[in-house]
Amino acid sequence: MSSSDRLLLVLHIGFAIFTLGPLTAATMSTPRYIRKRNVTVVRYLHRTTQIYGLGTLGIFLFGLFLAKGDFAQVWLTVSMTLFVVALVLLLIVERDQRKAVHLLDGAGAAAPVAPRPATEAVKGDKEGKGGEERAEAGGGPAAGTTAPVAVAGGADIAQVERGRIAAMSGVVALLWLVILVLMVWN
């Protein structure tokens, strides 16, 4: 094996180690944060998927250069085909992440508000002020008035996207493992 082949092999393995791990972690943890409606984390995981998804192209390119056009070997053809399938599934995962971010942003801006009666006194009110005095002092609504409270519950936001991301990221992780077994076996 020549030194250029060794360099290509090191780059191929290095890109595999440093891109597939974070990519898989980002795609597989996205459904949890969609369920929790944490749009900031989902946005971050979407960006992570985009960056490391582009990085996986380095794995494919260095593998192509390493193969030197010898595609007659079955394990190499199968690995490349599975890799392309995994990239297509990653594009669908990225699309669903983007859509989930959009839906979570929209749900956060349009959260329903329901009135809630305020209590006359707050437990632990050291000053002993009543509701009206506390309202005048800026400490809360007066007794007998209502305070807006966001309603918990309602329809689950981005449920379809969450399910698709969970399923496809699992399939992509299995494809990475099959490719790894094929690479190590040969």
TrEMBL record:
Is Disulfide bond given among the entry's keywords? no
Q: What keywords sit in the KW lines?
A: Membrane, Transmembrane, Transmembrane helix
Question: Which residue stretches belong to region Disordered?
Answer: 115-144
Query: Per the database entry, which stretches of residues form a coiled coil?
Result: none
Basic and acidic residues bias located where?
A: 122-136
Residue intervals passing through the bilayer: 6-28, 49-67, 73-93, 165-185
Protein name listed in UniProt: DUF2269 family protein
- From what organism does this protein derive? Actinomadura rubrisoli
